[in-house]
Amino acid sequence: MRQILLVVVVACMFSPRATAQQPEAVPPQQGAGQPQSQPAAEGSQTAASDSRDPKEILKRARTIHIRPKPGGAWSGFPSEPLEKKLLENKDFLAMGLVLVKDATSADLLITLERPTMSWDCSYRMTHEETGVILGAGKAIAWDCIRAAPDIASQIVKRLKQLREPNPVTPQPAKKEPKEKN
């Protein structure tokens, strides 16, 4: 009996652990046997490169879904306090963005995470269609409910940065040489 138990313990120690992983988003592929289409003109290449530009993505974005990353008993960052703080923020409301419960209908996804036994409450804002990360940050708090106001202000600040037109940096005025009389 001890030998069987010993064999089972040793087998468990050396066997690879099965870990749950989130499936990665795979872009839709063309039908089998069909050749990959190449861009017809230079204009289509610039349109494709613009689609990854964070400012262009945010111009088109209208809906946001907030999703807590699943975790253990001590982890977790509930979405409700953050949703509440965003909806109370005047700047967020002025942008015309809408929070939605259905992730499939959202243009942007904000994933909330709190590692197990940690005071770090972090977020990552992504455009799921392109995989572009638009912003990320964290707040340190006793619990993530208390971190929600700070995280909300970080998100609004980043959204405002991306929505503003490119600032023109003022050029220093050239000094004219003084004429000697």
Tell me what the structure shows.
With 181 residues, the chain is an alpha/beta fold. It is 35% helix and 17% strand. It has six helices and five strands; from the N terminus they run αααβααββββα. The protein has a five-stranded mixed beta sheet with strand order 2-1-3-4-5. A hairpin with a 4-residue loop joins strand 4 and strand 5. The longest helix has 20 residues. About 25% of the residues have low confidence.
Gist of the model:
The protein has 181 residues and is α/β, with parallel strands linked by helices. Helices cover 35% and strands 17% of the residues. The chain has six helices and five strands.
Total helical elements = 6
Which structural class matches the secondary elements? Answer: alpha/beta
Q: What percentage of amino acids are in beta strands?
A: 15-25%
Oligomer: single chain
The SSE order reads: HHHEHHEEEEH
Q: Termini distance?
A: 111 Å
Q: What would the principal axes of the Cα set say about the shape?
A: elongated
Measured as a percent range, the helix fraction is 25-40%
Mean pLDDT: 74
Strand order of the largest sheet: 2-1-3-4-5
* Unreliable spans: 5-49
Number of strands: 5
Largest sheet data? 5 strands, mixed
Radius of gyration: 25 Å
